[in-house]
Amino acid sequence: xxxxxxxxxxxxxxxxxxxxxxxxxxxxxxxxxxxxxxxxxxxxxxxxxxxxxxxxxxxxxxxxxxxxxxxxxxxxxxxxxxxxxxxxxxxxxxxxxxxxxxxxxxxxxxxxxxxxxxxxxxxxxxxxxxxxxxxxxxxxxxxxxxxxxxxxxxxxxxxxxxxxxxxxxxxxxxxxxxxxxxxxxxxxxxxxxxxxxxxxxxxxxxxxxxxxxxxxxxxxxxxxxxxxxxxxxxxxxxxxxxxxxxxxxxxxxxxxxxxxxxxxxxxxxxxxxxxxxxxxxxxxxxxxxxxxxxxxxxxxxxxxxxxxxxxxxxxxxxxxxxxxxxxxxxxxxxxxxxxxxxxxxxxxxxxxxxxxxxxxxxxxxxxxxxxxxxxxxxxxxxxxxxxxxxxxxxxxxxxxxxxxxxxxxxxxxxxxxxxxxxxxxxxxxxxxxxxxxxxxxxxxxxxxxxxxxxxxxxxxxxxxxxxxxx
Length: 470
Hints:
Elements: E1 2-4, E2 7-9, H1 40-46, H2 52-63, H3 69-91, H4 93-97, H5 101-104, H6 106-109, H7 115-145, H8 149-166, H9 168-196, H10 209-222, H11 241-266, H12 270-279, H13 282-287, H14 292-323, H15 333-351, H16 356-384, H17 390-397, H18 406-422, H19 431-435, H20 443-469
Antiparallel strand pairs: 1-2
């Protein structure tokens, strides 16, 4: 590894090669290696959401929480909108700094303090999300081919690992070519499903269901945020910022809103609910109302979509792991970490093939619990540094002596207090919803606000004390 002005620079020649293992890990991308254009972000953030895990978010609102179709759609639009706006904003600094999202996170957390969010994201992305999407892809492939579930899971996992192992360029190419296939199939399926839905169907809503669904939809969309600049850091520094934000944000927003709305419509169809309740396979239930040819195409698309999503999850999980600061001597250290995460994720997904609905809802809420406070630190820190030059910030990214304990402390306190008071899921119910069910789940909202207050107060006090000390 070489250094330039105290910045760790990624070694090796990679360029625009597609069938080649991307070298390095979380280092700065040299200007000579920069390529691509902002538009590619649109399909990079559309294709991964063209899968059943997205549909299931809307389906849960009606099937599990008992919301009406329109209430579910409102929660989808608000939650996804919030996560998509932050996705666009976080994508912008990638070309400027040439580093992954979890390296940029060091500004708000310090070099070693950043091990908190980077470590969480490496586990959640490389193992947690990987398992979730592997399950949905496995159930689809099993319904399509009737091959044993374990063998279907093995096939899905192997393909996902291969794409992620090779790295950045192959991922962008895979998402690009999957994009038209997935869009065409899912548009056909969406039109059919929406035409069969019953938006005015009767329902029995659980207390606080709207806020729980809002948290789940936000958790799904915002789950991509810690990856944002991972896929923009190869763009040239002078790339159009507005095009970057719009391509990333709209790709995420449009794909999630469309398929989650379709999932909500599916939840209003008695036949779909009957199959889901009897078989426990929501993927088979979703496709049960289609003519055979549409059903088979949809199952194929769900399988491809799961691969498209998990290629990003394993890749960014491995990037986050290397961003913790643990030095691996291997030239292909990111690729090796991706392989390890994929192996662990296989066994976790195997264990998660049963009771997928409840586990998935809990998982989405947990995502929102930690990313909300993390975002609060990142955006508050960016606001305080808005007048800093690129060089000032860049030097801190790789400075092992740089500390900013306001970040990890604010995040831990904000997340911990909000979970204690407001969490509402099957594994734990907080103090407030336990006594007042209508409160739903306000964890990410409360956690984000509390974290922001703690971080800004801490930093303003420290900065003011530093000025007086001079």
